[in-house]
Design a protein that fits this description.
heterodimer; A: 126 residues; mainly beta; 7-stranded mixed beta sheet; 0% helix; B: 109 residues; 6-stranded mixed beta sheet; 3-stranded antiparallel beta sheet
């Protein structure tokens, strides 16, 4: 059974650091991209970035470049999303996703997100 | 940055068909194989229901179908059922970025 299981909800203060996780199972971790999608309360979905655990190639949305760090641990087949200094505006549900993509003219295009984790709620408040 | 435009809401009665549109620039939505659709019921994670390259995932009803005309991709749901009430998001893989529409809330009357 292919699964993405995320870590539990977090309550943090502005300026805190945080790392949330996504434990994968049921497929070859190093052969698929894995990524993160943000959903602020009552709002839509925003793609944050992906990592390819096989070679650690990491791509970020321009909106999130420099704001978060995506990483992956091959030994535990787990992906991570990390903040060094949280803001109130980071309050959101974060979903771990498995992107399926293709390369055309050396550019990687995502055609679909075929698996989603259950979500991790991050609440940042003073 | 490109944007994808969806209607905020649509509604239909059980048994009817509805279509949700997703409009962007021709340069992007023209790459139909990179368009996908997601269903999100309240309190749940989104779920892939249709993609331009691989159509319907296993387990998704054939009442869900997708199409494209010009710079608009569309999701059609036929034979509406109460369980279809949810928010539907389109998504486009655009190379350096991947963009979601703002979502369309479907109400089954």
């Amino acid at each position: 059974d292919v699964r993405l299981v995320q870590s539990g909800a977090e309550v943090k203060k502005p300026g805190d650091s945080l790392r949330i996780s996504c434990k994968t199972s049921g497929y070859t971790f190093t052969s698929w991209w894995i990524g993160w999608v943000r959903q602020r309360p009552g709002k839509g979905l925003e793609w944050m970035g992906n990592i390819y655990p096989g070679d650690s190639d990491t791509r970020y949305s321009p909106s999130f470049q420099g704001q978060v760090t995506i990483s992956a641990d091959k030994s535990s087949t787990t992906a991570y999303l990390q903040w060094n200094s949280l803001k109130a505006s980071d309050t959101a549900m974060y979903y771990c996703v498995r992107p399926v993509g293709v390369y055309e003219s050396h550019i990687h295009y995502i055609s679909r997100f075929d698996l989603w984790g259950q979500g991790t709620l991050v609440n940042v408040s003073s | 940055q490109s944007a994808l435009t969806q209607p905020a809401s649509v509604s239909g009665s059980p048994g009817q068909s509805i279509t949700i549109s997703c409009t962007g620039t021709t340069t992007y939505v023209g790459r139909y194989s990179f368009v996908s659709w997601y269903q999100q019921r309240p309190g749940e994670a989104p779920k892939l229901i249709f993609s331009g390259d691989n159509k319907r995932p296993s387990g998704i009803s054939d009442r869900f179908s997708g199409s494209k005309s010009g710079d608009t991709a569309s999701l059609t749901i036929s034979g509406l059922q109460a369980e279809d009430e949810a928010t539907y998001f389109c998504c486009l893989g655009a190379g350096s970025d991947t963009i979601f529409g703002a979502g369309t809330k479907l109400t089954v009357l």
